[in-house]
Structure formats: C-alpha cells, structure tokens
Amino acid sequence: MTEQQEQNSRMAAYELRTTHSVELVTRWTVSRGRETYGYNICTLLHDNQRIAACNGGGYDMTGTVLGSFIQHNFQAELIKLDPKKYYGLRLEHIGMRVDGGCGLNSIIKILKALGYHTFTKELKHDATLFVITNTAEKYWEAEHTYNK
User: Fold this and answer.
1) Where does residue 124 fall: left (phi above 0), alpha (psi -120 to 50 degrees), or beta otherwise?
2) What is the distance between the alpha carbons of residues 110 and 79, in angstroms, rounded to a whole number?
3) Separation between Cα atoms, residue 147 and residue 107, nearest integer Å
4) pLDDT tens for each residue of 24-69
C-alpha cells in the first residue's frame, strides 16, 4: 500500500467512525502493463481515491481489497477477536492479518464481529458499492436509498 493509499484508507475509516457510515466502491479493470498485461485488477475506492488494489486471479479479489482496508484500519478491534473463530483471520508478529483471498463472505463475517453491517449493490458490470455502517439505522437508510 502506497503512502497515498494509506492516507485515503485512513480517511475512509475516519468517516466510518465519525459519521457511522462509509461508501466504498470496487472497480474492475484489466492491466495494460508489460509484465501484467491482461491481468484483472480489482481496486477499492473511497470518493474516487484508491484505497487498495490487487491483480491476477484465482482468489477472491474483492475480499482481498476489502480485507486490506480492514487490516490497516481496525487493528485495535481485530486484536480482540479469536482468530480460530474466523476463517481468513490470523495473528502474526505485526498484528492481526486479514486474508481476504479466503472469500468476501469471511470478510463480511469479520466486519459483523467488529459490529459493522454491510450493504452491497451492483452499480454496473464493473463496479460494486459497499456501504459499511455501525448502526442498524444507517444500514436501513442505505438499503432504502440504493434499492430505488
């Protein structure tokens, strides 16, 4: 994660903690780089700013970028969880590691254990909206807003 991505990630986490809700978008593109030409790229965005990205395939890339966001911003909360109870969560020497490649469902279960609700909506064929909230009211507000 670059310094700019870390800053964008911290801003999204701050928004979640202060307004009790944050909107993140995953966007899919295809690499045109020399060494990675043709690889899928999954990018997690907040206010059109990159938070995390991964490329390749053969694993849950959406779970990976969302897991990266959680890992970098919620260490204090993650350390309270028992890693044996959550697939994709493990304790390492640097803190808790969230392996999103284990699946988006595993990441959503971890978010739920941290007290967050997630609402998902396909925006178009190459983008998905994730609204993460820590109150039921914000969840229902998101559901009613985006299901029109």
Assistant:
1) beta
2) 12
3) 23
4) 999 999 998 888 888 999 999 999 999 999 998 889 999 999 999 9
Residue of 110, 96, 14, 123 whose CA lies nearest to 66: 110
Residue position matching structure tokens 């997690």: 44
CB 137 within 8 A of CB 21: no
Cα 130 to Cα 145: distance, rounded to the nearest angstrom: 13
| Whole-model pTM over 0.85 | yes
Contacts with 18 (C-beta within 8 Å, 6 or more apart), sequence order: none
Domain ranges of the chain: 3-146
* Average pLDDT of every residue of the chain: 90
Residue 88, both tokens = 């994709």
